[in-house]
Amino acid sequence: MSAFDPIILTLILLVPLAGAILIALLPDRAKLPNWIALITTLFTFLLTLHLPAHFNTGQPGFQFERNIPWIESPAIFYHVGVDGLSLWLVVLVGLLAPVGVVASWNAIQTRRKVYYALFLVQQTAMFGVFISLDLMLYYGFWELSLVPMAILIAMYGRKDGPRAALKFFLFTFIPSAPLLVAILWLYAKTGTFNFADLQYQTASGVLPASALYWVALAFLFAFAVKVPVFPLHGWLADTYSEAPVALAMVVAGKLGLYSMIRFHVGLFPAQARAIAPLLIALAVIGILYGACLALIQRDFWRLMAFAALSHLSLIVLAIYGLTFLGWASGVYQILSHGVVDAALFLLLGALEIRFASTAINSYGGLAAKLPHAATYFVIASLAMIGLPMLSGFVGEFIILSSTFAGVSRPWAVAATVGVILGAAYMLSLVQKIFYGPESAQTASKPSADLRFRELAILTPLVVLMLVMGLAPDLWLNTIRTGVHPPQAVESPQQSLQQIDQNSSATPSPTPTSSEAQR
Amino acid sequence: MTPVHDIYRILPEVIFALTGVAIMLIDASLPPSWPRRPLGWVAAIGTTIALWASLWQLSLPEGTGFFSTVETSAFTVFFHVLICGIVLVALLLSLDALPEDTHHQGEFYALIVFGAVGMCLLTGAVELLVAFIALEISSISTYILAGWRKHTGRGPEAAIKYFLLGSFATAFLLYGIALVFGATGTTQIYQIAQLAPAAQNQSLIIAALALMLVGILFKVSAAPFHVWTPDVYEGAPSPVVALLSTAPKAAAFALLLRVVYEMFPNLHYLWAPLLWIVAVLSMTVGNLAALRQQNVKRMLAYSAIAHAGYLLAAFAGIGEIGIAAAAFYIAAYAAMNVGIFAVVTLVAGYDEQLSLIDDYRGLVYRSPLLGSLLIFFLISLIGIPFTGGFFGKFYSFSAAVGGGAIWLAVIGLLNSGLAAAYYLRLVVVAAQRPLLDSSSDASADSAFAAAPRPAVGAAVIAAVFLAVAATLVLGIIPGATLDAAQSAAHTLQAPPQTTVPAVADPAPPAR
Lengths: 518, 511
Description:
The structure holds 2 protein chains of 2 kinds.
Chain A: H1 8-25, H2 32-54, E1 63-71, E2 76-82, H3 84-104, H4 112-131, H5 135-144, H6 146-156, H7 161-173, H8 176-190, H9 195-204, H10 209-226, H11 236-242, H12 245-251, H13 254-265, H14 269-295, H15 300-320, H16 324-355, H17 366-369, H18 371-385, H19 391-407, H20 409-434, H21 440-444, H22 452-470, H23 473-483, H24 491-502, H25 509-517
Antiparallel strand pairs in A: 1-2
Chain B: H1 6-9, H2 11-29, H3 37-56, E1 63-65, E2 70-72, H4 74-97, H5 105-124, H6 128-146, H7 154-184, H8 189-195, H9 202-219, H10 228-235, H11 238-244, H12 247-263, H13 268-291, H14 296-313, H15 319-348, H16 363-366, H17 368-382, H18 388-402, H19 406-431, H20 438-450, H21 458-476, H22 479-493
Antiparallel strand pairs in B: 1-2
Helix pairs in contact in B: 2-3, 2-5, 3-4, 3-5, 4-5, 4-11, 4-12, 4-15, 4-21, 4-22, 5-6, 5-12, 6-7, 7-9, 7-10, 8-12, 9-12, 10-14, 11-15, 12-15, 13-14, 13-19, 14-15, 14-18, 14-19, 15-17, 15-18, 15-21, 15-22, 17-19, 18-19, 18-21
């Protein structure tokens, strides 16, 4: 136990906020806000690294917990903590923050003060979502995370920022209305916002099942829009093509997927099981639909948006397969997707700054001019496609194999087709941008290869992809304690454990090897 | 005779009245060439003393005075403090926002203070005729204040509309009071509460309730009695609207709480569905109409109607929970609404050259501080967590859910999603870069240059600071206010046992 343990999560929440206030107070001179933001985010990242360093893998449940009464009536607590599920997601947010600052370094030239201050507030809100164990606190951070995002998209959008910001905000704000009603209903019935208590209460069967069905649906709806899941993805492409690079990296996926595992499947296992077939179908449709649309995009941000829809749907498939293996690989895939996406966004953002275009066909033959960029881009693309030995492979493979063995063969086959399509659009993107004849637009502009700052942040990301591909157990062991607590006799997990036992024959190499290690 | 001298029961009102009279006298005796601005400071100081006096009333034993016509309790103190705070902010705002050459400046301040007398008295009254007189005192002041900008066409229009419709509504209230008196033979609220269930002519009581609701719902600008609101808000000077949209509403809601929860608790089955309908109508009509507005003040007027609806949702709550939620919402709403009208005053100036939403384009770039304040208050109005607006909505809708009105909460929350659209429109416009093509840029710049920039003096800074602080405190540490609201609710639900103030309490009249 370190002396930091009780306050570390609070520090992680407060340091970005303090940085934001500092930026707001100091003058907007030269690169001052950039540097403060960079130092703050790096420091926060170091703080988040404290968590895995002192995390006790053998110990189930939440660690670094803090539970202080905040408001007496209704009983809202400042209750934070992490378990294996959220541990690495917190670190991921910490890692992506400095990446985002570097990505914005030259892209944001006006009003740096506003930009970086709001960027840091956004960090606080995202950390808050991942560590809150009080439903009301969680909801607070969930809502708070929308505001800086919407304002930044409105102010720094490429062409039509305000419209995209409005779309994004309404798409994500309106579903949170039923979410709040559902949270309030739970509170009215149980008298608590505490996650663990609620988990116990929903499983104990004292709450009317018909009402719980609607409550669970309200939770799911809010999360599904945020992910997004297939028919609810209307905001995604516009947001990706308008949002500043640093924000597009974090806008989709993580928050919604984590919330699905923790607050939908975790709180309402029976209801989740009832609705799982629908979500599996939607997820597979999303995989194929996103991949097909990605194939025909002319703008690379929109391509990335539909690629994200496809990849995130794969994780949704993993979550609603309702196997422990699927959950662990789903969380792992969130991490991998976060890292890979960050690298790709950084590179595409760098290209956009150099050549001032987001149209794919205005590029060509850049490999000769920008060899470093080309190398990194190819590696990141391969990781995204899921080449063995790179991070994308592990998650994708386990998800598909566990779906095939434990859920449904046809769906697994269909999802695999989507993965093949993924290779098609990513490789054609690489080919169009970096190979082939040099286009007129790129030839006309003298451009330097990646600068030191960009290399300094890309290299660790690429190394990380390689390490994640080679030694997934470093992460999977901890994640597994979160989704599959050793004392899995806890009532809410019981029904799910049975499913897991059915699928325990899943032929996948990684878990068995990790089992042997333990 | 009584341990607490009657005068202490109305101490804040007395202080307000004395301040107002003093201002009128000083104003009349000063040479015409002297500036009238110091009179505003006199009013502000008087309001501060009244605020302190309201807090001091907490140390009095609960009870009534003046033959059971006025009461002091946690409930009245809660609203007194709230109203004094709003009046203080509005006064500070007017101090800097009114141009030096405004006509009859002294009377302006005096009227605000006299209005405060009426509003405070209205929250303390436990006798219907006193309540009626208090309502009239506050209304007449606000009628005059609404038309203060005589040189514009809109000012007098606003005043006349407000006056005609307002008098009509108070007539309804008076009819209601008359019918209650006819049915029970008394106008004292506690006695009515005791006698009404046993009254022979129940239809008389029901008619009375309906008429009184019409009168009060008009004052809180709930749909379908809201038509006056946008015109009045548009025509009245912004500092006055800051006051108008909050303090009289707070007082009227206090009366509504008294009427439904204290006077006719047994008619719950009648007024609860009525208020349910009014709440849904108010939020939906307000939000839908606000979506289409081009004028910022009209938009905020419709938003105020919608907020009245959110507040009425709390009335679906059971007993104390509902009352406490409503009281908290009023406080949160007052803090953010006073704040946003303070910002509007500063942006648009007294003469309001900049009244359209498009005129706010690029505000964040032109004046970062004002821009961020505007966005802050809009975020609170949307109801984003860690601002007062969020906990207001939160308590209101959780009261509704607790009272079984789940659909009301769902409609309300969907409405707040709808409302986000128009608030965000203003945020987005303010955050947009100023137009780049030269002609419109030049005209926008010149409009900005032409607008007489109100002197941003200490008073305005203090006013905005108070509003920001209140909004943040209500959003981050709502505990204290909620406790106050709950004890207020408690006193309303459990009124003093004896209606005659002959309490055998040997407490000295003053400390």
